[in-house]
Structure formats: C-alpha cells, structure tokens
Amino acid sequence: MPKTEAVLSNNEKHNWQEFCQSHSMSEAEMLRMMIHKVAPEAANACQTKQCRTNKITIRLSTENVQKLDALVQAEGYLSQTSWVTSAVMANLIREPVLTKDEMSELRDSNRQLAAIGRNLNQIARVLNIEFRYSDKITREMIEMLETRINKHTDKVYQLLCQNQRRWGINNE
pTM above 0.85? Predict the structure, then answer.
C-alpha cells in the first residue's frame, strides 16, 4: 500500500501521538480521517475521475526535444510532459485539450458573457416594466452590446480554432 511520510520535530511527534491516543485512534487512522474531512475530493480522487497510473516513456532526438521545448513554451504549457499528454489525449478523444491560459481566457469570456447578460436584463426590465423610460434605451447602447457580443464570440471561436489546429482536429 502506498505510504506518505512527514518529518516532525520531537515535540510535534510527541503531541501528535498523544492527540491520537486521546481519541483512541492510531496515527494512520487519524491522518486518514483528517484527509477525508479536510479534502474529501483527494480521498476519493480515483472514484471521481480516471486515475493516471500508467507511465509511458518516449525517446526523441536532440533536435526533436528542442522542437518540443519551443512548442511547449510557445503554447503556454508548463512542461514537456503536459504538452505530450495533451497531444495524446487530443488524438485519443478527438476533442480540444486546453492549456491553463486558454481555460483562463474561457473563464474570462464567461464573466464577460455574464456581464452582457446582466446588461440585457436591465434593458429588458426598462422596456417591459417602465414604458415611460423606454426612450432611455438608445440604438447606440444596443449596438454597443452587439459589438461586445461579437467580439466575445470571435475571441472564443479563435481560441477553439487555434486549439483544433494545434492538435489537428477537424471540424466534423
């Protein structure tokens, strides 16, 4: 069974042992219970997502490693392993695999969409409830929202196209 170790001072170790004994538990049982309480997603990680337990080693020429390093940096990956894993997954599942930066852009995009939605709700409220103030909604305001929506959809489209080109995924 896998094992986790921690280096403790003599005082910490003594206090930990006393704490566990006072609760009639072994040190391992107490630690396991604490992990389940503090981080249940970590305790049940293999049950909630597919665990990556298999390792594959590849050998590349120096030239190809240099090309890989250039791609890793250019595309915003943190390591060669993460890039290679993404490349393999994109080819296995034939769906885009996003970098952390791309995920961040999509989160930002969702925030922008939420803001646009709030603006539209305010406009609808004015138009539907307060007819006498409907003249406050100008054509320019609606065109501004349309421009923001178009910019947003273009940004997301470009991000996904860039990702599909990276991994050679065709729009099917």
Answer: no
